[in-house]
Amino acid sequence: MHHLLLNVLWLMSRYIHVVCATLLVGGTLFYEMVVPLAIDELSSEQQLLVFAKARWTFKWIVWFSAFFIILSGVVNTMMHWEQYTNVRYTQIAVPAKVNVGPEIRTVPRAGQVGLWWSAHVSAGTIAVLIALSLTIGAAPPVRPVRWMQLNLMILLLVMFLATATRQARLQAELGGSPTPPPTAVNGG
C-alpha cells in the first residue's frame, strides 16, 4: 500500500508540474501576443481597462502556477534525488579490452543528470521570479511585453532542460551501473 501511495504521489506531482508549466507558458504567450493584438483598435481608456483585467487574471494564473510548480518540483526532486547526486549516475561502466573486469570512466558532463537538473531548476527559478515580478504591484512594470518575451524564451529553455534532465536520467538508468559483471573477451 505504501508503494502504491508513493507512485500515485509521484504521478500526480509530475502531472501538476506539467499542467502548471503549461498554464504559465500559455498564459505568458496569450498575455504577450494575443491581448495586445486584440486591444489594438480600442481607445486608450478601453485598452487600459482590458489590459488591467487581463493582468489581474494573469496574476492569479502566475501565482497559482508558481506555487504548485515549486511544490511539485520539490516532490519530484525528492523522488529522484539519488539520481541527481549519486555516483552511480555520474559514472558508466564499460568492459575492458582485456579480461580484468570492467573499467570505470567518467560520463561526459553532457550526460550527468545532476547538471541538467541544476540548470533546469536555476532557469526555472529565474522564469518564475520574472513572472511573479510582472504581477506584483498596482501597475505593470516598465516594458512588460519585453519582459514577457524574455520570460517566454526562458520558459522554453526550462522546458528543454526538463526534457534533457529526463533523457539523462533514462540514459543513466539504462547505461549506468555501479558494478557490472566482468565480461570475458573472446579471441576473435
Strand-and-helix sequence, N→C? Answer: HHEEHH
Judged by helices, strands and strand pairing, the structural class is mainly alpha
In what order do the strands lie side by side in the largest sheet?
1-2
Terminal CA distance: 52 Å
The tally of beta strands, per DSSP, is 2
Tell the overall outline.
elongated
Rg (C-alpha, Å):
23 Å
What fraction, in percent, of the residue positions are helical? over 70%
Mean pLDDT: 81
- Main sheet? 2 strands, antiparallel
Strand content: 5-15%
Which stretches are low in confidence, meaning pLDDT under 50 for 5 or more residues running? Answer: 92-101, 176-182
How many structural units, i.e. domains? 1
What is the count of helical runs?
4
Task: Write up this protein.
This protein is mainly alpha-helical and 188 residues long. It has one domain. It contains four helices and two strands. It has a two-stranded antiparallel sheet. Strand 1 and strand 2 (102-106) form a beta hairpin. Helix 1 packs antiparallel against helix 2 (44-85), helix 1 runs antiparallel to helix 4 (144-175) and helix 2 (44-85) packs antiparallel against helix 3. It starts with a helix and ends in a 13-residue tail after the last helix. 19% of the residues are buried.
